[in-house]
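Annotated sample (chain length 167).
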Amino acid sequence: MASAYDFSFTTLKGEPYPLAQHKGQPLLVVNTASKCGFTPQYAALQALTKSFPDLAIIGVPCNDFGGQEPGSATDIGQFCEINYGVSFPIMAKVTTKGPDAHPFFTWAVQEAGFLAKPRWNFYKYLVNREGQLEDWFASVTSPASKKFTAAVELLFYAEPADFAPGQ
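Output written by the structure step:
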């Protein structure tokens, strides 16, 4: 059975970013976009870095939904830093759906089911310390919501078997 640690992204600078470097650490992977109605969620994601400093947050831009991430790697990096003070890693753009979807997103859908398939920007995937998908959230769930922060807390304070993805 695959784990999130089996996947790798590429940074905005073109360097490999294997998720295996976060083994034993809870992980949050979010497909992002700079020109989306949900883009202000970057602020809530950044706030999570203070509330949960041991949570590895990975932003993964995509241009799959409404062409809302048209910029270059430099544009994306500058936008995130200037507008939201993002300090967590932002990856190079990927595809999140269809036959060219990045393998992480294909795996997440296999693990959590059809409803976990990204249907817009800012889908959020929580991975436990063992690299297994613990839960996922659609765009409309803010990273600042009680529902979301409760799920993050479970990654730190409860056994991973306490709940299944999508609950």
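Annotation: Residues 76 and 130 are 30 Å apart (CA to CA).
Annotation: Confidence is low (pLDDT under 50) at residues 160-167.
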